[in-house]
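WARN  no MSA supplied for this record, continuing single-sequence
INFO  ligand: pyridoxal-5'-phosphate
INFO  echoing inputs
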Amino acid sequence: MRFETIAIHAGGRPEKTYGAVSYPIYQTSTFVFDDLGKTRGGFDYTRTANPTRKVLEDTIAQLEGGKAGFAFATGMAAETTVIHLLKAGDHIISGDDVYGGTYRLFQKVMSDFGLEFTFLRMDSRKKLEAAVRPNTRMLWLESPSNPLLNITDIEMVVAVARQHKLLTVMDNTFATPYLLRPIEYGVDLVVHSTTKYLNGHCDVLGGAVVTTTDDLSERVQFRLNAMGTGASPFDCWLVLRGIETLPVRMREHQVNAAAVADFLVKHPAVKKVFYPGLKSHPGHEIAKRQMKGFGGMVTFELNGGLEAVKGFVRKIKIFSLAESLGGPFSLAEHPATMSHASMPAEHREKAGITDGLIRLSVGLENIDDLIDDLRQALET
Ligand SMILES: *Cc1c(COP(=O)(O)O)cnc(C)c1O
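INFO  complex generated
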């Protein structure tokens, strides 16, 4: 099966018992045993496993080309579970421009449990190798990154990881498996916030992990159950429904995002546009090589800094001032005070997240309406 078909049929859909085309929501906490030690299909308690969750997990695993998938209550629950594969004393090298919540989890929570972190722009093999310590166990990357849409050369990172026997984890939330399949480049674990494009409708929180070996699958499933981080059946059903239209939505998001980027580049109020599809983007060539498209996110910097941002966010009408991304609704957010507020100012500055930066999640509205809205909001 090809991508579009997997998105609709994976996990044994339509369901076999009654032929339900929309897979049922098994809204139950517990399952009847037929005899001591004898369950039906291996389901005994929903924290451990649930049929609706299983269909979603199988679907995401197949879309990513991995061994097994796991669905979590949120993207952060997925990340929390993955970081617990390590133990006190281990060192992790993370991208320096990862999602703000990832940075907060690592720096403000996991550091208290004896994990050590180095935050680094993974744009040079030398720099990355120099950061590896004897106790380094994991490389954590995100590409395109948030909010600057920096592109990381995955093959380079994987080469360093293999040489030093490190586990690679990639947050593939922004690209989705439709545009990028990190496992094809040798990444060990893929994580997602399914809250974003995979669900795609701004109506649920969810996370996912895709593994590449039986050992990793066992360890992730053990932690999902032990830590209670798994997703609820209803939430899984929503994400599953969203994934059915993922390819169609991604194609449309991209067309709109490219048009928005082209418009912004030419606008005099705009200082800089960050979109991997632009030839001027430093990661353009790598993105072209490793991705099937450039995605639906566009970030730009206004000439007037924070004051100009205040004017812009008050004027937008179709774009809403809101965090998150990946839904039909076009959203604009201000990383410095919103998504990346949990990052200290000094670290933000180092990562290039300035006060004049605005990140757009370009939605599925008519492109002319979106551009008209941006044009009127940029007028001074
Ligand atoms: C939103 C997001 C997360 C966190 O996901 P939640 O579902 O909000 O917990 C992690 N990584 C990236 C790239 C995100 O955009």
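The domain at 247-377 is CATH 3.90.1150.10 (Aspartate Aminotransferase, domain 1).
INFO  checksum written, moving to next record
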